[in-house]
Design a protein that fits this description.
This is NADH:ubiquinone oxidoreductase 30kDa subunit domain-containing protein. The chain is α/β, with parallel strands linked by helices. The chain has helices at about 15-20, 75-85, 115-120, and strands at about 5-10, 25-35, 40-50, 50-60, 65, 90. Helices cover about 25% and strands about 30% of the residues. Strands 1-4-3-2 form a 4-stranded mixed β-sheet, covered by helices on one side. It has a two-stranded parallel sheet with strand order 5-6.
């Protein structure tokens, strides 16, 4: 069980991440899991004084997710990786590699995606 977790929505995500930064939280990383039915769980991990705090966003894979790279610039690397690996789209990315951060041009599948419909639509 994950401790110190707060549920967020697409509408509240950036505001909650901004609160984390204003509170002195250090951005650690995101974790993403395909939970089926075309949805993903994204866990946003932060640290302050060796205590991890997490935000959880459940979103449809075909819905654009607000980028947090305007709050924590380093988030652009994780968000680009999730675009590569899960076929997600982050709106407002400070720097968007267009699914080419880690993937070569010849890659035509979404590596971590179990959703066949999403895989076909992204080709």
């Amino acid at each position: 069980m994950i401790e110190n977790i707060k549920e967020v929505t697409l509408d509240t995500l950036v505001g909650e991440v901004t609160k984390m930064k204003n509170d002195g939280q250090r951005f650690v990383t995101y974790s993403c899991t395909d939970i089926g039915d075309g949805n993903v769980d994204i866990l946003y991990h932060f640290d302050k004084d060796e205590v991890i705090v997490n935000l959880r966003l459940t979103a449809a894979m075909d819905t654009p997710i607000p980028s947090c790279s305007g709050v924590y610039f380093a988030a652009l690397l994780v968000e680009n990786e999730l675009q590569d690996q899960f076929g997600l789209v982050f709106e407002g990315l400070a720097l968007d590699f267009g699914r080419k951060l880690y993937l070569d041009d010849e890659i035509t599948i979404i590596p971590m995606c179990n959703n066949t419909k999403a895989m076909t639509a992204k080709k």
